[in-house]
Amino acid sequence: MFFQETFRLLKGRLKSSRTGLGSMIALLLIGAFHQPALADEKDDQELAAIKLQIRQLMEKVDAIEQRKEKEKSAVIQTNTERQLPPSSSSDSGAKSLSPAPHWMSLPPPNTAPIKASSQNSPPHSSIDLKSSSPAAITQTAVDRLPPVFSIGNVSVKLGGFVELSNIWRSSNMTSGPATAWNNFPYANSPNHGLDEERLSSQLTRSSVLLEADPTKSIQLQAYLESDFGGAANTTNSIQISGYTPRLRQGYFTFTQNEWGFHVLMGQAWSLVTNYSKGLLPRQEQLPPVTDNNQIPGISFTRVPQIRFEKDWNKKYWVGLSLEDPQATVAFSSSVPSGGRLPAAYGETMGPKIFYENSGGVLLNSNTVYTYNPAPDIVLKTAADTRFGHYEIFGLARWFRSLSVPVGATTSEKHTHFGGGIGAGMTVPLIADKLQLTGNILAGEGIGRYGPTMLPDTSFNSRGLLSPVPEIIGAMGLIGHPTPSILLYSYGGVETAGRRRYMGADGSQYGYGIDDQDLSGCNVEFGVCNAQTHTLASFTLGGWWHMLHGSYGSVMGGLQYTYIKKFAFSGANAVRPTTSGNTLYVTFRYFPFQ
Questions:
Q1: What is the 3 state secondary structure string of 30-95?
Q2: What angle is formed at CA 430 by the lines to CA 426 and CA 433, rounded to 5 degrees?
Q3: Residue 593, SS3?
Q4: For residue 549, which of 124, 12, 86, 96 has the smallest C-alpha distance?
Q5: What is the band of 28 on the pLDDT scale with cuts at 50, 70, 90?
Q6: Which of 15-29, 289-303, 484-498, 566-580 has the lowest mean pLDDT?
Q7: 174-198, pLDDT tens digit by residue?
Q8: 18-50: buried (b, 16+ CB within 10 Å) or exposed (e) per residue?
Q9: Cα–Cα distance between 176 and 173 in angstroms, integer?
Q10: Is the separation of the CB atoms in 145 and 137 below 8 Å?
């Protein structure tokens, strides 16, 4: 009877056991005792010992099962506590319960109750088209997105879009999705009346924003943004359009909120760029255009810099930026670095000049870089009021060249100062339905800050770089007829002045000369050395946020730009002009928005 009862008990334990160890012990005991009863079993003490061993084994099984249940409950409780928002622990003053080894974690799921809607409205999108410069179009709007995951105490946000643009131009520019506005040809070129059609995905963009808060008042951020606007020597569009990634922006920022103090270091939009609010990065007042070279009249660069800013209650701002310098040089005749300028009036020979070198280590060896004695310096103040955002700034630049005067055997170093003053504004006209924005920059040697790329400098008769006077300006209207539609219209102008001297042969040299024979500019295959005086443009476009949901967003854009180029007048008052048209049809998919 004892063995039958033991077998029944162990069989029940086998069915109810929740651990592999309990199952194994039960099976061993069944195998050991499920035998026919022996007739000669007489020793009661031996039976008592066996019973004691069985009870001890069963007690061990129960202890192991209880310990496993406690460990399982502790894991479930820890995982539940990790999903609580950070504010729940910080408000109560409790310490974080997340174990130290878990250095990488996913953000908590959205546990907010889902409200029923009779209209089955889609989830809210982070794309906001009510702004005068929607970050989803001009940047990547990564600030508006939740963290995807965290690494230690650093949260990681991902942004970007995949793009396809169909580009048509009335003249053949052999250009990708960025239009070189000053290169629209005159009628002498066979490309003048030869339109261009091109498809491109080069502006597909990705970004990542890293954020950390070492203290309640200090915030650290790092931002990286790239696209495929690069073109290596082996790149072509014949069979595989293998265009290369490039750095658009890459910087980190330090913010002390109690002091209103901000520092930026890295590659970002220049402080010269107009802003829609404050002076912080990713708040630039960039036009929501599809062309990657912006539009004529918009002041900007995107270069390495060191920036210091101070705000007062996020209403009044002052910023100082030291930015990577570079200059463009134009001259009426081709004089390479190391060549000799045409002789000035009354002279028999001109000086030899040096002003640029080919790129060296980690620079582009296929282009040239000017001599740069100091960074460009931008000092800007801004104010945010009920009536809009307003700003003024000053720009300082330095240009350097070497010259070897006639008869001399050593070079002389020359440094010339340039720069200008500028202003910008963003004004709401009808609440969040219509905004007016504008910017202007005037000075000498400021050509690099305009999309047209008018020259910064030319040469005078002594071989010194002479900054060219220029004005860059634009004004735009941005409308929002519905939450999913954005319309915009911009007008812009860039114009340059003269920097010239009279040569020994009676001809003018420099930039803006007016004694050239330019009659060939209007004849196919004619000779045309016209120099650009003014470019004026008009742009009209819009975006439609056509789809959004848990899968992201899809947007479509349409843009038309008309440009008119005016040259300096030549001999016999001939003033060549040309015009151009561009049309963009763009589609973008935002998987994170």
A1: HHHHCCCCCCCCCCHHHHHHHHHHHHHHHHHHHHHHHHHHHHHHHHHHHHHHHCCCHHHHHHHCCC
A2: 85
A3: coil
A4: 124
A5: very low
A6: 15-29
A7: 999 999 999 999 999 999 989 999 9
A8: eeeebeebbeebeeeeeeeeeeeeeeeeeeeee
A9: 9
A10: no
Amino acid letter for position 573 = A
* pLDDT at residue 49, rounded to an integer: 67
pLDDT digits (tens, 9 = 90+) for 550-568: 899 999 999 999 999 999 9
Assigned token pair, 498 = 């003269």
Q: In this structure, which long-range contacts are made by residues 28-37, counting pairs with CB atoms below 8 Å and at least 24 apart in sequence?
A: 29/54, 29/57, 33/3, 33/6, 33/7, 34/3, 34/7, 35/3, 37/3
Unique residue bearing structure tokens 């810099």: 305
125-233+241-590: in CATH 3.40.50.1220? no
CA–CA distance, 145 with 162 (Å, rounded to integer)? 17
Q: Closest Cα partner for 402 from 453, 339, 452, 454? A: 339
Which residue, among 347, 333, 355, 343, has the nearest Cα to 414 in the 3D structure? 355
pLDDT digit string (tens) for 257-269? Answer: 999 999 999 999 9
Residue with tokens 């915009």, as numbered in its chain? 488
Instruction: Give the Å distances, CA to CA, from 188 to 244, 330, 513, 534.
Output: 34, 21, 20, 19
Q: Are 213 and 219 contacting, i.e. CB atoms less than 8 angstroms apart?
A: yes
For residue 107, the model assigns a pLDDT of 52
pLDDT of residue 77: 56
Q: What is the pLDDT of residues 374-420, one digit of tens each?
A: 999 999 999 999 999 999 999 999 999 999 999 899 999 999 999 99
Residues 532, 466: Cα–Cα separation, whole Å: 17
Q: How far is the C-alpha of 365 from the C-alpha of 360, rounded, in Å?
A: 6
- What the block records as the tokens of 382 is 């801004």
Q: CA torsion sign, 537 to 392 to 283 to 447? A: positive
Number of other CB atoms surrounding residue 217 within 10 Å: 11
Which residues neighbour 383 within 8 Å (Cβ) at sequence distance 6 or greater?
Answer: 315, 316, 317, 389, 390, 391
Q: Which residues contact 317 (CB under 8 A, 6 or more apart)?
A: 278, 279, 309, 310, 311, 380, 381, 382, 383, 384, 391
Q: What is the pLDDT of residue 382?
A: 98
pLDDT surpasses 80 at 544 = yes
* Cβ atoms < 10 Å from Cβ of 407: 7
Tokens of 24: 């194994």
Pair of tokens at residue 150: 């965290």
The per-residue pLDDT for range 308-317, each reduced to its tens digit, is 999 999 999 9
Cα distance between residue 403 and residue 412, in whole Å: 5
Give the closest residue to 399 by CA, choosing from 376, 375, 415, 413: 415
Read off the pLDDT of residues 317-330 as tens digits, 9 standing for 90 and up.
999 999 999 999 99
C-alpha distances in Å from residue 300, one per residue of 39, 124, 326: 104, 33, 13
Measured CA to CA, the distance from residue 414 to residue 209 in angstroms comes to: 43
Where do the structural domains in the chain lie, given as residue ranges? 125-233+241-590
